[in-house]
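Renewal narrative, Specific Aim 1. Our central claim is that a sequence can be written position by position from structural information alone. The example that follows is taken directly from our test logs and has not been curated for this report. It begins with the structure tokens describing the chain, in the order in which they were read.
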């Protein structure tokens, strides 16, 4: 029985624990969900809730009155929401992504992966997921971020159960076939430009190569010290030297 319960944990067959929260770290029912949201006490991944605001998505909200209000507000890249081109939007998004990614690495630790949701549902809109290499870095980030503000709003960060984003993403969206649009309950991840991806994740590969070379140098140094000690030991045995 225990093995069976473990095998269905976090799946749709699990009638106790919420499969959506387990897969994507969020649930459209929130605290009203009939199933448990088991919040992790340790994780490599943190969720920063609703921090990214996509001006283009403002015109797609379900509430018409809210839509009119958003259209009247200037976007953060100048001009009005309706005037933002795809190129300008990508540049704005890349700037946001690079700023957050760089700050996470500089302040808290090495980032393995960062993803931003482009969904419209309240539980997913603007969510940023950051997966650190070390769990202690994620914990440190959550503690610090919850004392900070962004764009005039307090930041809400928490540890997330998501570690495999392949399970959290909408496969139909990736193939351009999702019929649920922005209100899909699985992640629609907004891509960054290829140039920025090479720049950000290329730094990590360079650091790894640098650390690898450093380890190799330390290893060679230890080998040389061992060789010297062996030669000295042989000399002492042969010539009676101290």
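The sequence written for that structure reads:
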């Amino acid at each position: 029985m225990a093995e069976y319960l473990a095998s269905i944990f976090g799946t749709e067959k699990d009638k106790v624990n919420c499969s959506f929260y387990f897969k994507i770290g969020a649930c459209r029912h929130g605290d009203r969900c009939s199933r448990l949201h088991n919040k992790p006490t340790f994780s490599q991944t943190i969720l920063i809730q609703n921090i990214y605001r996509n001006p283009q998505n403002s015109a797609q909200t379900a509430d018409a009155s809210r839509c009119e209000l958003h259209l009247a507000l200037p976007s953060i890249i100048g001009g009005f929401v309706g005037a933002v081109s795809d190129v300008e939007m990508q540049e704005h998004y890349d700037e946001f992504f690079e700023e957050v990614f760089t700050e996470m690495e500089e302040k808290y630790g090495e980032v393995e992966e960062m993803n931003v949701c482009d969904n419209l549902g309240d539980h997913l809109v603007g969510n940023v997921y950051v997966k650190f290499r070390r769990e202690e870095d994620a914990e440190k980030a959550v503690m610090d971020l919850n004392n900070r503000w962004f764009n005039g709003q307090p930041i809400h960060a928490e540890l997330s159960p998501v570690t495999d984003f392949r399970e959290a993403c909408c496969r139909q969206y990736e193939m351009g076939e999702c019929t649920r649009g922005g209100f899909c309950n699985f992640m629609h991840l907004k891509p960054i430009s290829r140039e920025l991806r090479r720049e950000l994740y290329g730094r990590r590969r360079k650091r790894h190569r640098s650390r690898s070379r450093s380890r190799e140098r330390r290893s060679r140094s230890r080998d040389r010290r061992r060789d010297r000690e062996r030669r000295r030991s042989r000399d002492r045995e042969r010539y009676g030297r101290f």
